[in-house]
Amino acid sequence: MSHRIVLRLLACLALVGLWAGASHAEGLVREIRGGVLAHDVSNLRSGFRTENDAVAINIEALLSSSFRLLGGTIRPAIGASIATEGGTSNAYLDARWEFETPTGIFFSLGLGGTVHNGETKLLAPNQTDKALGSRVLFHIPVEIGYRFDSHNSLSIYFEHMSNAGTRDENEGLDRLGVRYGYRF
Q: DSSP E strands: which ranges in the chain?
């Protein structure tokens, strides 16, 4: 079953890429970001068992619609993180608040929901996949980066997903890595 969900996530990811390219002409997508993340990093927010040492590929579209709040801008973000070696993959939709300085440094914080293909329950004591408790989880991203010009940026990106204690199993999953961004 998990292979079918991964294939669906990959298909959704491909559609996001096509949609982003097609919709740019209409101004729907403001920026595309993508990168490589360390999958399920230990000693961060989710201090339980860790899944296999792997890499996750992340891609995201920040949409153009926005509003100003507390000196920054809130806009929708849609994306996916695909684990490359059989770990948990996910697709997400967030509200992202981003603050940019005149020097090019930016900071963003988000809150949204995610669906994943991982385990929801602990099935065996030696299980390698996390018991995430629910198919739909909270998604909390944090990012700090530098914008080189009006188009290109590089950032450090962290994402946490868990059910926030709404279920008995709540091991959560953390990723940390580097992303490149291109603003249209």
A: 29-39, 54-63, 67-69, 72-83, 90-100, 105-116, 136-147, 152-162, 173-183
Tell me the CB-side half-sphere exposure of residue 4, using CA atoms within 13 A: 1
Q: What CATH number matches the domain at 2-183, 3.40.50.2000, 3.30.1540.10, 2.40.160.20, 1.10.3660.10? A: 2.40.160.20
Say how many C-beta atoms besides its own lie within 10 A of residue 137's C-beta: 27
Q: How does pLDDT run across 16-75, given as a tens digit for each residue?
A: 555 555 444 458 999 999 999 988 776 665 556 667 678 999 999 999 988 888 989 999
Read off φ and ψ for residue 11, nearest 5 degrees. -65, -40
pTM over 0.85: no
